[in-house]
Each structure stands twice: as C-alpha cells, then as structure tokens.
Amino acid sequence: MAAKLFPTINLSPAIATMALGSASAGHSLLEKIRIAALHSFKGVEVYFGCLEAHAYVTAGVVDHQSLLQAAVETKEVCDQNGIFVVCLQPFLFFDGLTSDSARIDAFKRLRLWFNISHALGTDLIQIPTNFQQHDTTGDLGRIVEDLKEAAALGLKESPPIRLAYEGVSWGTHIDTWETTWEVVKRVNMSNLGICIDTFHIAARVWGDPTSAFGCLKNGEAGLTATLERMIQELNPQKIFYIQIGDAEKLSPPLGPGHEFWDEKMPPRMSWSRNSRLFPFENQGYLPIGRILAILVQHIGYCGWASMEIFNRKLFGGDPAIPEQYARRAKQSWALTIRFLEKEHENDRARQAVTAL
C-alpha cells in the first residue's frame, strides 16, 4: 500500500433514516430524526420511502405537492434538532434505460427530486447503479450520456444540485466502484461524484452469501487489488460522501429453501435487505475496516460518513426499534472512530520503523 498517511480523522456522523426503522412498519420519519439527534448524529440521509410515507400520513396522498410539504416539515424538524440533510436517496433505476419513454419519465422524476432536495435543504442526490433485470443497457457511452445530462440539469438549479453515483453490488451492468468512477471521470463535471459504500465493495469483491465460507474463493486477492486501485486512482474531492456498514455471515448459506431466498432477487440483494449491520458489531464479518482505513488514512477522505443498513428486524412494529437502532449506531460510531485511531497509530509506528 502507499506510504502516504493523512494525519487527521475528520468524519461527521450521519445515519440513513431507514436504518432506524421501516416506514412500512409505521416508524415516523420525523421521530427518527429526533432520535438520531438525541444519539449524537449530526446528519441524516433522507430515504425517499420514508418521505413518501410521511406525505401519505399527513396528506392522505403521495403527489408532487404532498412530497414538497413533507420535505418542508422534515427540514423544520431537522433544523429544530441540529440535523443536516446529507442527501436524498436512492434515485432508483435511472442509468442505462433503453426505452425512450422510460428515460423521459426518469428525467421528470429527477426534476421533482430537485425540488424536493431544495425543500429539504440539501444539494445532494444519490443515484445507485441500475439493478433492473430488463430494458437496460451496460453500454458505458449511454450511461455516461445519462449522467452527463443529469449533472447538466443539476448545475442549472439554484443552488446547484450534486449527484453521487453509487456502485451497487448486485447492479445489472455496473456493480463496482471502479466502473462508477470511470463514468464520473468520463462525465467530468463538477457536480457529479461518487458515493463509496463499504458494504457494497466488500460484498462484491470479497463476500459471497451463497458460500458456506461466506466469501469468494479469490476474495482476498480481489480485495487487495481493489484497495490498491483506490489508492492509485481515487480523488477524495470526488467522493461526495461514504456509507459504512457490515453484514452477517449467513448460516446456512443463501440458496433455495433458505428463509431469505427469493428466486427473483440477486443473492447479494436478498442478503443486503435482510442481514446488514452497523460497522464493527459482533455478528459482522466483512473486511470493512480495511476499506475504511484506506479511504480515510491513505486517500484522505474527510466529510460525511453515514450509517446505512437494511435488516429484516427494521420491519418490526415495535415502537422501540428507532431508539434501539440509534443506540446501536451510536455505539458503532464510537467503535469506528476507535478503530481508525488505532489504525492510525499502527501506520505511524510502521512508518517510523521503515524510516530507521
């Protein structure tokens, strides 16, 4: 790995609203924001499904006007509790659409999301790579065209809107950070960057929920190679924010007959929806610490680090779930900072020995 070492850890703690309970189970967006603030988080990723649920509860309908009003109310509660809206996410099924009508509809949605983002007080929208199994293309030229047009529209907004492109580990055509980074470089616009997610990177190059070992046969080599490429290629200024999370090792492994198995869903997606964990929790096993250390200490990323998880238990109706998960997330954040501080000490010691 590269010898360069950045001297400080400068991360701001955020949490995704769906990580504090599913809206479909009745967990209120505004209450989750208040609870996040009580547990020392400084920012939230507003999950669109949470916003839709709030719009429906308050207006009885989900439309342009009710979504904007829900965003205004969300912003008010954030302001009252000292919470910053990091981004609105996820803007699904956007890149590589082959149907002209679907593409037109996607850009109409994007313009609505611009308006919602302004009402929330955020300048950032996250776009995950497309995981639709049909009517999409992996042609990078077409995908670059989509993102370039979206970024150009974002620049025309006042204030401008930034877009964070995220490589989803079960993406149909793009499932790595390397390819999202290639798209960002080709687009070459100031308001398009990437979102780096420790789960998706580890899940794609190292993890395998269908294996009894929980990992790919060549996972260690794959992880080492991707971390080397990060150091060599990534510009920290183009990492608009990072998401940190881990996952359970499935035992038995995922396959037909498993309670999480869904033949219509990619295995990594089912794993993600059911079994993700906050960083450094006891049941986690992915090598996310190695990824995080590279991002912070060797690349020099500083900024928002958001706890993003999905888990089957978040769909429970127990009203205590948001507080329970916020408490776990706060403990996880402390462990994350402790890990990075220890890694920093170890790196400094190694450099001192090398210098002798």
TrEMBL record:
It comes from the Eukaryota. The keyword GTP-binding does not apply. It holds the Pfam family AP_endonuc_2. InterPro entries: IolE/XylAMocC-like, Xyl_isomerase-like_sf, Xyl_isomerase-like_TIM-brl. Residues 34-326 form the Xylose isomerase-like TIM barrel domain. GO terms for molecular function: isomerase activity. Coiled coil: none annotated. SUPFAM superfamilies: Xylose isomerase-like. Keywords: Isomerase. The keyword Isomerase applies. This is Xylose isomerase-like TIM barrel domain-containing protein.
